[in-house]
Structure formats: structure tokens, C-alpha cells
Amino acid sequence: MIIAGFGFRSEVSEEALMEALELAGGLRAQKIATAGDKAVATAFVALAERVGLPVVAVPQAALQAQAVETQSRASLKERGVGSVAEAAALYAAGEGGRLMAPRVVSSDRSATCALAEGPGRGESL
Asked: For the CobE/GbiG C-terminal domain, which residue ranges apply (predicted)?
């Protein structure tokens, strides 16, 4: 299963999220994932509906437990993890999941997306 994980700023647009998904090659994803509190953000919910994919809301502790490749100072300060996108994708990919590539960033820098592959976790919103 391929998971597209997202990190994004509160002012993100659906278009920026879609751009990040496309840049990451995520149109083949079977689920999308992000931090639990961000899974209900208007733009993210609109993206999920647009691409027709279930959402995995990742608990904060689970984000911090993931080994990510990218180290964003802003993400480290705000979330305690170097990349929310990578961590969300890895968590949702499940046991033995692996990153397919480091995160990509939308042109307006408000959204990031990373892909991970694995057996997947069952829970979705």
C-alpha cells in the first residue's frame, strides 16, 4: 500500500496540498495521512474528497516515534519531528513501512508531502 503523508501550515490551500501530492508522485496513493489535529483542516478534508482517499489521523506521539530523513527546524520546534509528512506516511504505512523518497514542498512552501510504502494500518477517518 502507498501512503501520501502531509505536513502543512494552517493557512494552506487545497491547491497547495494537491501540488505537493502531484510533485511527490502521490496520485497512486491509496490513503493520505497527517497529524491528528490537522486531519480535520478544511483544505485537507477538501483534498481527501477531491482525490477520493481515506484519511489516517496520526497521533502526536506516533509522529515523534518515526525515523524521518528530513529535518525541518520549524517542524522540529512545532511538532518535535523533522518532517510531519514523512512521519505521517511512515506511521500509516504500518509495520516495516519505508519512505519511497524524502518529502517535497509546494511552491508556496505551505505544504509538504512524502510517500511511504508498507502493509498499511487499518484505521481511517
From this structure: 2-116
